[in-house]
Amino acid sequence: MFDISLLHELKKGNREAFNGVFRYFYPRMMAYVASMVEQKVAEDIVQDVFLYVWENREKIYISDGFYSYLFQSAYTRCLDYIKKNLSVEKYHSQTYEKYLADYQNLLKDDNPVIEELSIKDFYYRLYELLEHLPAQRREVFILTYIKGLTAKEVAEQTQIPQRTVESHLYLALQYLKKHMSKNDYYILCTILLSHGIHA
Fold first, then answer.
1. Contact by Cβ (8 Å): 85, 158
2. How far is Cα of residue 75 from the mean position of the Cα atoms in its chain?
C-alpha cells in the first residue's frame, strides 16, 4: 500500500520521499501510458509528469487521490501528443480522440457508468484472458493490479528482477488491450485508475 506520509515529505523537498513516490507509481503509470502511446513516448511522458511534480512539489495537494492527479496529468499529455503527432490517415484521429474522450468520461467521480456495468462478467472475461498469459506474467499482473503490491514487493515475493516485473506488467496490459473488447478495456483502465493500486 502507498504511504501517504511520503507526500508530506516530498512537499518539504525530501528527495528520498520523491524517489519512494517515483518507485511506487512509475510501473503503474508506464503500463497505463504505454497502452495509449508507444513505449519511448510513454517513458518521456511519465518522466515529464514526475519532473513536474518535483518542480511544483510545494503546490501539491496531499490526499488519497494523489494517484488520480498523476494519471490525469499523464492522460492530458498523451492526448496532447496524439493531437500533435498522429496522422489522420494512419490513426483516424477524430475517431481516436472520440474514443479517448469517451474513456475520460468514465473516469469522472460522479459518473454512474461503472456502477451500472456487470463487474462480475467483466472479471470472468478478464481471468479467462489472464489464463492465456505465461504463468509468471499472470502472477505478476494479479499481484500488482489485483492484490495491490508494488513492483518492488512483487520482485521480492517472486524472486525476479524488478525490471522484469515492470516488463511483465507492460506486456500483460498490451495483451489485454489487444484481446479485450473496447468496452472491457474501458472498464479495466477505469478500475486501475479509480483504485490506483488494484482492480
1. no
2. 10
Q: pTM of the full predicted structure?
A: 0.48
DSSP characters over 141-181: HIIIIIS---HHHHHHHHTS-HHHHHHHHHHHHHHHHHHS-
Instruction: Kindly provide the b/e burial profile for residues 94-116, where b requires at least 16 CB atoms within 10 angstroms of the residue's own CB.
Output: eebeeeeeebbebbeeeeeeeee
Q: Is 134 left (phi over 0), alpha (psi -120 to 50) or beta?
A: beta
Sign of CA dihedral 30, 32, 33, 37: positive
- pLDDT per residue as tens digits for the range 28-85: 888 888 877 788 888 999 999 999 999 988 887 776 677 778 888 888 888 788 777 6
Cα distances from 93 to residues 79, 97, 180, in angstroms, run 11, 6, 21
Q: Which residues make Cβ contacts (< 8 Å) with residue 182, sequence separation at least 6?
A: 99
Task: Supply 163's cell numbers.
Answer: 525490471
Given a contact cutoff of 8 angstroms between Cβ atoms, the answer to whether 4 and 51 are in contact is: no
